[in-house]
Amino acid sequence: MIFSSEMVRLLSDELNLIKVATVYNVTSATYATIHDYGNVTLSKAGLLLICFDAGLGSAGNGYIRVRIGASLYSYACKQVGASTLHYTFITYLAAGTYGILVEGCVPAGGISIIVDDFQAGFVNFSDLQGSALAAYAGAIDKTTVVRATPVGNIKNTVYCVTVYAITAGAQTNMENPGDALTNGVQVLLDGVQQTWTERWQGDVNNMAAGGKCYISASAGASHIVTITEDNVATAENISVAVCPWILPNELFEIVALDFSQGSTLYLTEEPLDGNPTKYVYVGKVRGITFGASTDYYGSASAVGISAFSYTFEYVKVSQCLLQVYGLGGCISIIAVDVR
Questions:
Q1: What residues have CB less than 8 Å from 233, skipping those under 6 apart?
Q2: Residue 206: pLDDT band by 50, 70, 90 thresholds?
Q3: What CATH number belongs to 129-243?
Q4: pTM above 0.90, yes or no
Q5: Are residues 226 and 139 in contact, defined by beta-carbon separation less than 8 angstroms?
């Protein structure tokens, strides 16, 4: 027997850069600094992960945006009501030093907007590439190379698009297919409009809109990300990360399984910018489906770090798909015990 494994989450590069539990707040009807978290330094290109909790002093709507560097905003979100909400996002950055600053406002005035439990960290993966955070200036073209892994060739990848948008003096909205919204902003892959995985709309008080879109696409082919807007005065900041090991929110086949019959497949899934329930399946949706219990020979779901294994004794490797999902999570280790 030969055991072959690959750690695709590159832990030697990983850094927890900011971890601040202190509560910060601001009371302002226009964007004002909630807190300046100082500088972080990245020695190489990769993903900056950010997560935090937010709330309002009482009922109402508040807005938050995160600035990275001197002038670029990586994300904007909307806080609704006094209940605490948790926000997460990823930004692809080049090597360098970046300031991290959080701004917030409550357009109605007189209410505090609060941020606490702020974290920022650096993560890197095998096969990761991207377009670093920048003012949107045109099409972004990326290709994930098909290569051999211990369990088979990479088959598909995920385009993780994060967009901040604002229209001076007007409302901005992230637009899904079929929407007809004021100053709409659309994300397209290969000319086809996509649905935002998560979106936060602005308002008439000149509050920014934000969205993230996780799109699965084939590896080994060029795919082009574009942004269109209804109003040429709308400005966007965009980051695109492309990686087969970041999980989307729908079933996703990473590799084409290719190893000897009788072998055991191993897969480890982990939290990334969130700690969602992550899913893994071996099998395929049938011509007439009666649900996961009859579509798949092996399956598992869990939060935290979860290990999955399946031995292909009588089930044919060549006839099965390995599919995963769990937005906010990732694959960290793939392995096979070949017999």
A1: 167, 168, 170
A2: confident
A3: 2.60.120
A4: yes
A5: yes
Nearest to 165 by CA among 221, 70, 233: 233
Task: Report the alpha-carbon distance of residue 336 to residue 318 in Å, rounded.
Answer: 15
Tokens read off for 282:
């071996």
Dump pLDDT digits (tens) for 230-270: 999 999 999 999 999 999 999 999 999 999 999 999 999 99
What's the distance, Cα to Cα, between the start and end of the chain in Å?
A: 5
| In the chain, domain spans | 11-123, 129-243, 248-338
11-123, CATH topology level: Jelly Rolls (2.60.120)
Phi, psi of 89 (to 5 degrees): -165, 165
Could you check whether 11-123 and 248-338 share the same CATH topology?
yes
- Considering Cα of 231, then 232, then 233, then 238, what sign does the dihedral take? positive
CA angle 263, 269, 17 (to 5 degrees): 140
Phi, psi of 114 (to 5 degrees): -120, 140
